[in-house]
Amino acid sequence: MATASDVRGGDLLDRLRAQGVARLGIAGEIPFGYIDRNGELTGEAPELAKVIFKRLGVDRVQPVPTEFGSLIPGLASQQFDVVAAGMYINPERCEQVIFSDPDYQMLDAFIVRKGNPLGLRDYKDVVEKKAKFATGTGYAEIGYAVEAGFEESDILIVPDQVAGLNAVEAGRVDVFAGTALTVREVVKKSSKTEATEAFQPLVDGKPHTDGGGFAFRPNETNLRDAFNAELHKLKKSGELLRILKPFGFTEDEMTDLTAKELCGG
């Protein structure tokens, strides 16, 4: 009998069809992939995975929660079959896993006080206006601000967007930078602040867009290709936006970017 290594492109899809279940690696991150208050698996990536795997003949998905930093090692050691955590596709990760094309793109936005008194629309404005600037622990936005000329030692690092909102409301900072999606969602509960229009940060002097997708083991190209084919159908029909909308995604987050472009090739 042929083993997995004998089948060009891997036989994981056939095995998942036989088992009737696909195991999804998630990192407990709202809105990407998490267990809700009722103990149910949800988030943009798991909900999309449910639809795509059903179309591929796999009836059920099962969550395998782990830390974000353990997703790629967990995939490699076969703790789960696919990473369904809205993971950003970048060249470093592309050396370790293969990605579907992105199901969403992500731009940046700022939390500012109501009326945006300093007129902050991008990182260049933050530098020029000498604004007090905050962003989150480990956020890509740290690098974007530094690229624009902000001193890293002058950045206030807070745990997350809620702490960022509090810092702007309290006047400790003028601006908090995050993804357009998280910023839009968090200011809904605030009467003192607003979200700026989404914008592209600059990386190496060029406008940059992030995109997130599903990660597979490098030898499982058959599954990745079949998954991609269904994803593209959902994009074309508009169903993808309908699946992602409950998690705060809008038309602005829809994308035609490819994994190849985001991997740097």
Explain what this protein looks like in three dimensions.
This protein has 265 residues and is α/β, with parallel strands linked by helices. It is 33% helix and 23% strand. It contains 11 helices and 15 strands. It has helices at residues 12-19, 44-55, 71-76, 91-94, 123-128, 141-147, 161-169, 180-187, 221-237, 239-244, 259-262, and strands spanning 21-26, 34-35, 41-42, 60-65, 82-88, 98-99, 104-106, 108-113, 133-136, 156-158, 175-179, 193-195, 202-203, 206-207, 210-216. Strands 1, 4, 5, 6, 7 and 15 form a 6-stranded mixed β-sheet that branches. A 5-stranded mixed β-sheet has the order 10-9-11-8-12. The chain has a two-stranded antiparallel sheet with strand order 2-3. A hairpin with a 2-residue loop joins strand 13 and strand 14. It starts with 11 loop residues before the first helix and ends with a helix.
Instruction: Indicate the percent of residues in helices.
Output: 25-40%
In total, how many beta strands? 15
Tell me the radius of gyration: 20 Å
Strand content: 15-25%
Query: Structural class per helix/strand content?
Result: alpha/beta
Overall mean pLDDT stands at 95
Largest sheet: 6 strands, mixed
**H/E element string?**
HEEEHEHEHEEEHEHEHEHEEEEHHH
Oligomer: single chain
Number of helices: 11
The shape, in one word, is elongated
Termini Cα gap: 37 Å
Low-confidence stretches: none
